[in-house]
TrEMBL record:
GO biological process: negative regulation of DNA-templated transcription; regulation of secondary metabolite biosynthetic process
Cofactor: Zn(2+); Mn(2+); Fe(2+)
Organism: Propionispora vibrioides
Record keywords: Cytoplasm, DNA-binding, Iron, Metal-binding, Repressor, Transcription, Transcription regulation, Zinc
Protein name: Fur family transcriptional regulator, zinc uptake regulator
GO cellular component: cytoplasm
Compartments in which it is found: Cytoplasm
Coiled-coil ranges (or none): none
Family: Belongs to the Fur family.
GO molecular function, one term: transcription cis-regulatory region binding
Binding-site residues, Zn(2+): C94, C97, C134, C137
Amino acid sequence: MLKDIIEKLRSKGCKITPQRRIIIQSLIKFTKFPTASELCNDIRQTNPEISLDTVYRNLNLLIDMGVVNQINLPGKDANVFELSLEGHHHHLVCLGCGAADCLDYCPVDEKELQKATGLKFEIIGHSLELYGYCEKCKALSK
């Protein structure tokens, strides 16, 4: 997986720095979507010199390159991150426990969105989080 991500980044002209490599490796290790702080803490176990600012800066670049998705969660540490290897998709976010799950397809028709915005605005991408309650939290509220 690491090799595929690095190849994709290189094909877009992105330099593979040691920091980028360890951030990608850390993202691969996580089974759930980590926050930037969780990534930083994980990386500091082997690379104590890395800063949270470096993690954020590289995450933003990886988002721009299309290999990382940012998922917006309500709350203090309001963003989690995932590797974006399986193509464009969206997320279901639980307002109860904060869990985020992938919606394995995109329900948005960008051509229709472009028609709605007209010629004055060119859409180059979109992101969508659907907020509600997971099965567990929905059952607890009853």
